[in-house]
Amino acid sequence: MADKKLSFATPAEPDAPVLADIDGVHLRWYLRDLRGGRTLTEVAQEVGIRSDELGRIERGETTQIRFTTLLRILKGYRCDISDLFKVEAAANRPQARYGSALRAYQAGELSHPGRRTEVRGLGPDEQNLDEADTFAEEPVSRRRRAAGSSLRQ
Amino acid sequence: MSDPRSKIPADEFYVRADPPPQQGDILIGTVVRVVAGGELFPRRWAALDQAVSELLPAGPDGPALRVAAGRELVMVTTHDCGLDKEFNARVRRLAEAGADEHDATAQAEVATELDRSLQVSPLVDPALVTVDGVPISSGQLMAGKVVGYLPVPALDDGGQELIPESVVDLSYRATVDRLAYTARVASVSEFARQALRYSLARLDALRSPLVELELADAVGQRIKKARVAKGNQLVVELTLEDDSVLRLLQQPGSPDVGGPSRTAASLPPRG
Q: Chain A partners of B106 at a C-beta cutoff of 8 Å?
């Protein structure tokens, strides 16, 4: 299949773990970055908890943490509480792409309102009810109504 | 017939006209889909999920019903013959019963029970299209070589980019009320509509992008016309350049069996 021949770009580096996500706004956790070059075991001893437990905390896998543990972490990682978290605002979230078109519409610059209802000819599926061909060459007739139908403006 | 996979330049893709609503129209519209919560969705849809709402709580009849919805540039995928089909049928019936066209259309316009829905697919940023987190080459996407995506060139109107270069994500199809869109931004050429129909057929039924091209190569002639044979809708008759007719039986494509499949982790939560 053609899909197998696709060329791929290099994937992006993974980001810091997300502790919470509300409507695309992420609370990111930077504890691993703050450890720098020190080993997990070394820091775990300084914090006073097991290294496997600290590893889970670093990876954002722990859902709850005691205030006393948090305080020990701040001491062991030699950082302030504001260093631990960042709120990743929606700026990183892909934006909708209709902004420019909407401004043009609001400025009355779009020349294609496209709201009319049209009386069309028979569609091919209706023609098939009593005719042999599935594909119609053209609609039977194409009568148009003027703009400003009952459709909401 | 030209290669429908080729990238279509903007001046051949868009038309400067004000036709009635048609397949391929690009609207400022709305899309909506059912979600189960969490983050299990493609990032290319993140811009579309402007509101996520729980409509029904979880209960004995199933998990919670949540929908994600948003406004975006969308392309109408409904075939012209399906647009306002019931409206037209009502007008014809009224006309046959003796009403003049004006009265017939006026009556049909206010008949709220007539289906006025259309199907749309959103335009998404090609840079956000990935497979398992790995971006797909933008060149492949914009050349129309990736199943499920129709390339849309940028539309520049007097220095203002009304439509950024995009792909229509045909895997996201929403059925929406035609009154739910804001405005039509552009209409497309018949050639662009052909490319859309080809992409839809390729995604849902044919899968192979090479059928028409291989046929043309094999018979050494362009294909002038295609139609379903009389009496057998699985047989396609191709009229060639020299007016000879080739009869083919189309087999829908299917994926290979035996691949990985989702497990219990993908099932909706109970309760």
A: 150
For residue A147, the chain B residue with the least C-alpha distance is B20
| CA separation for the pair B56, A103 (Å, rounded) | 36
Q: Which of A54, A29, A28, A30 is nearest to A41 (CA)?
A: A54
**ipTM associated with this complex:** 0.73
Q: Is the pLDDT of residue B104 over 80?
A: yes
Size of interface A-B (CB pairs under 8 A): 169
Asked whether the beta carbons of B193 and B21 are under 8 A apart, the reply is no
Mean pLDDT of chain B: 82
Please state, in angstroms and rounded to a whole number, the distance separating the CA atoms of residues B190 and A81.
60
Angle between helices A51-58 and A40-47 (to 10 degrees): 100
Q: What angle do CA A98, A104, A110 make, to 5 degrees?
A: 105
Query: What's the pTM value of the predicted model, to 2 decimals?
Result: 0.61
Helices (H), chain A: 31-35, 40-47, 51-58, 67-76, 81-84, 99-106, 124-127
Strands of chain B (E only): list them: 14-15, 26-35, 51-56, 65-76, 117-124, 130-131, 134-135, 149-152, 155-157, 160-163, 166-169, 174-177, 183-188, 223-229, 232-240, 245-249
